[in-house]
Amino acid sequence: MNTIGKILTLTTFGESHGPAMGGVLDGMPAGVDIDLDLLQCFVDRRRTGQHMGSSMRGEKDRVEVLSGIWQGKTLGTPIGFVVRNTDARSADYEEIARCYRPNHADYTWDAKYGIRDPRGGGRASARETVARVVAGGIAVQALNRLGISIEAHVVQVGPRLGVAAEEQERLVAEAAKDGDTLGGIIECVVRGVPAGLGEPLFGKLHAQLAAAMMSIPSVHGFEYGDGFDMASKRGSDVMDLFVKREDGSIGTATNHSGGIQGGISNGEDITMRIAFKPVPTLMRPVATVDREGNPMTLQPRGRHDACVLPRALPIVEAMAALVILDNYLIKKTNVL
Amino acid sequence: MNTIGKILTLTTFGESHGPAMGGVLDGMPAGVDIDLDLLQCFVDRRRTGQHMGSSMRGEKDRVEVLSGIWQGKTLGTPIGFVVRNTDARSADYEEIARCYRPNHADYTWDAKYGIRDPRGGGRASARETVARVVAGGIAVQALNRLGISIEAHVVQVGPRLGVAAEEQERLVAEAAKDGDTLGGIIECVVRGVPAGLGEPLFGKLHAQLAAAMMSIPSVHGFEYGDGFDMASKRGSDVMDLFVKREDGSIGTATNHSGGIQGGISNGEDITMRIAFKPVPTLMRPVATVDREGNPMTLQPRGRHDACVLPRALPIVEAMAALVILDNYLIKKTNVL
Amino acid sequence: MNTIGKILTLTTFGESHGPAMGGVLDGMPAGVDIDLDLLQCFVDRRRTGQHMGSSMRGEKDRVEVLSGIWQGKTLGTPIGFVVRNTDARSADYEEIARCYRPNHADYTWDAKYGIRDPRGGGRASARETVARVVAGGIAVQALNRLGISIEAHVVQVGPRLGVAAEEQERLVAEAAKDGDTLGGIIECVVRGVPAGLGEPLFGKLHAQLAAAMMSIPSVHGFEYGDGFDMASKRGSDVMDLFVKREDGSIGTATNHSGGIQGGISNGEDITMRIAFKPVPTLMRPVATVDREGNPMTLQPRGRHDACVLPRALPIVEAMAALVILDNYLIKKTNVL
Amino acid sequence: MNTIGKILTLTTFGESHGPAMGGVLDGMPAGVDIDLDLLQCFVDRRRTGQHMGSSMRGEKDRVEVLSGIWQGKTLGTPIGFVVRNTDARSADYEEIARCYRPNHADYTWDAKYGIRDPRGGGRASARETVARVVAGGIAVQALNRLGISIEAHVVQVGPRLGVAAEEQERLVAEAAKDGDTLGGIIECVVRGVPAGLGEPLFGKLHAQLAAAMMSIPSVHGFEYGDGFDMASKRGSDVMDLFVKREDGSIGTATNHSGGIQGGISNGEDITMRIAFKPVPTLMRPVATVDREGNPMTLQPRGRHDACVLPRALPIVEAMAALVILDNYLIKKTNVL
Q1: Spatial CA neighbour of A242 closest among A229, A252, A228
Q2: So what's the ipTM on this one?
Q3: Which residues of chain D have pLDDT under 70?
Q4: CB-CB: which of A31, A77, A332 is closest to C332?
Q5: What Å distances lie between residue A37 and A65, A138, A149, CA to CA?
Q6: Maximum CA pair distance of chain D?
């Protein structure tokens, strides 16, 4: 249940204020060159303290690879890795143990397990995503060698669409000043995917991508191609007509389908959009209840992002990479 | 890859014009009363010829249960079932074998397997959903005994929101008259789900629901709770404050979260919306290419829906039922 | 839990006296020629009434393929199939519903599910193996095209080793005359397997083969290569020294390892032995208890084999074929 | 492929001379008391240097739990752990990189992956079992709380049966003096298992146990109950007749079935025997070939056990514990 993927599988572990986060990436093909410095750079894109309105928690997030890569190459064996938690300040979170923060997982966690680690949100903290980024960063390098690239960018912050980086920071700062937070939308494009990836039924490529993206903390919606807009169109408006390209291959003149038809990639760019809710931790007093349901007021504390979108970009790319590479491997088994 | 679920698993098979569609529902608990007449009624809701603009293919869709249910009760053994294809007219589809229909899976299927059954779309036909509805209908009956109910309804047809049934039919008829088709949005509500279902990480309840819904043919988007609207809001706008109910239990005053927090159900109604693209088969000539990429014109033929939404309602409910019941069973393993 | 395999998966269903046995073979590569007459012949090898001491139940065991094979070729889609139960005489089994037969699954089934189908043993009947043989027979045909062949033979009946077919029949007839039954040992050899199949850790090729063989009804032991004899030897006695073959390839001079080293095939013949317990149904009165634990005597009835080994040969071959083909496909994913 | 289990899953990683071995135990129920000192004691039973004829490699094998256990209780989250490799002397192994040791996995590994870590056998080293013992030790503690206990003991060393500890050491020393090695047989008994665990078809309890035991390095055979002896008996010889016990429960007078009938536990002791081949590394020159197939002589070096059986006892217990606890959890899902 902490594992994703079929051939290429990622299993992660770690609580926010435990000794370390980590994971096991299994099923990576053997003999793939992996540049660990490049991997660290990819992971660093997710770190805090780099963006306006991001948490002040100062984790170094040094990736320690424990197995599966030797002399710069994958061995075909599972890649175990850890990222130490070095800047956990658990004192900040003691109150949380006896109350339920709204729009957090405190209540549901208790309902499920009857026990939870309240320090920094425990495993429900978005800190778990560091393990996704490590594994995804490895998958990205493998995909790049196949000519496949992945790029995510913020296309909406709060109500504002198509915002430039500066504008983003201004909007987030504005909300943060009010002790408030913002959501937004990330678009992700995967280029260079060969036609034929994805499974026709329950494992449609977009269904796998949806599950992967919806598993990222705070995500509330997923669409691919023209997505929800498709619903309001007539069939004739969104028809991606086939064309014969100069090199003799078959492509489509438009890409309303987002590079996936019948759950299988068609060789066009894969496009998807992911909606994030605003961060649930406000920097102002919030009315809530304790474990017995009695009203109480929660005072703001801890170190939290006012908007997670900039930090979420490598997470989205990582999840896309894991799904695409897994399906690339699955496709190899479609013929004898 | 034709299987969904963890404890409760559904595996399906069948091509549109082969002898039969069918499936195996495994992991159903033993001793659950199943009413096969009620099941047939559930499956009948998906049949063609009942709605304006729906396909004229006249399948009876009689469910034949082959195992796993005896004397009206589940045995705990796999429930095998078939639904015969009795009204397949393969002659209609011969041209398809040598061309690629736009927005269909013909091209991608060839790219993946190098072979396909062109009769009626083969396995890429939405006819495969009959197996989902059979299995989901069994899950619905089990959930009902637990006090859990599921209801899907059409909330948008083409560009029109909140349409009544008559209005729906008129809009679809209008498009059909032009040889065109419509998409739309279905909302699904699950009531009575206890708090604590869903897995915190990759198996978030909404991630599983997203994968299940996105695997339905023609679906292009999924959101739960306030979904994409969440992205444009501030944190303080969408805070579901906790309240102590009269019976002493804890609930929330609002439900922007759609009944799921941190990937785990919180006891409120689970709400989600699913966007369907317009049916890709138009009843008018369409420009396309053959398998070598040469231009050709495809003449309209066959029997096709102009809008799938009314028939999709039981499919959406079926997929929701399978996911919820599976997670209900998984939760039993969270304590020793 | 009624599914086996990773890429190539078999899911089966069916109770002995229900309408049909059946299954879904998923993950078969596309474009493989399958001869359905040959498949029927393979399945017929498992039928009753062909061997001395075998059950008189006269099932025809006609295989009906419902999907996944078209015009003699696999489509890459799941292969659904059923085999009807046509000669079930449930009246024979009514007493069983209220008692527990020794060495059968009646008691354990009740302990697990609280309900069971007593007709012909329900799903606990060895009749379920017909679905394994259908699926395995398809896998055998695919393997044959790869130059891989599988052959099982009886090497022990009761206490007698290396028995010829006539001698076997005489021994079984002798036991049957006393209303008694016999066990024995089957050896299975897989030839032509390329080096490199199998997973190094939990999925060692022999671990997968062990699980597959031990899942066959009545099997009590599994060994590969020199097996249990290995335990009593010194390392120097069982060393399979490497040799360079005339064609330049590397092989071993002996094959104590049974074609598998470190869980991975080495290109030599894969050899294994499977021990079957004697059939638990005697043709004489047996003391037992009813569901409340009260003593009672069970009178012999029904139609039962006195020795299952001849009929088990295609079952063993089928299970071997499923495992080998699955691992053949998995190996394709070991490189990018 | 480095994962075992269904609800309770163990994923391991690590090469013999890499930085660390480790694993993730997922699916452990929440709220179970775990004594980490007791766990370390369990792991220490597997360490080298404690038995005659065991390797001189002096690993401390300190278990570092990184997640999933807090304040002495499981959280329901994945339990990540590492055991550092501190005494790896890779210089000993350089020759291995260019040759294939007989009865080792060097050749098959190259055939599979085209690359391998030759230091200490890489992932093919039995050092990987330390991760199994850590995870299994946690499962043992959970089982003990349920009244279930597991005990493995050596019942054969080389050709000698029923040997006492002193005699074992003498036999091993004798072989070691000749630069030779010994195999043997371990018996494992699980007491206190409730009736009803195990899946009737492919997941028979003994099939799962077989797969788990056969996945331990050097194991060549598995049997449960009377095992291979069953094959030479008549049905009437091995009938476990039912009896009503004084407390009203139903048991069997004998236990030829080894506590499992129809793949499901019947409440009697579960008994099984596991055959180990002799250690493949001899302490004398061995003729072999290099990667091109040219003959060469391999000189003895490194630190190796002359007989692994004493150290294998906790490994066998660990694997049994993982399987039994997993099936205990699965059984909870058999009713609604």
Answers
A1: A252
A2: 0.97
A3: 48-57, 90-92, 302-303
A4: A332
A5: 12, 11, 19
A6: 70
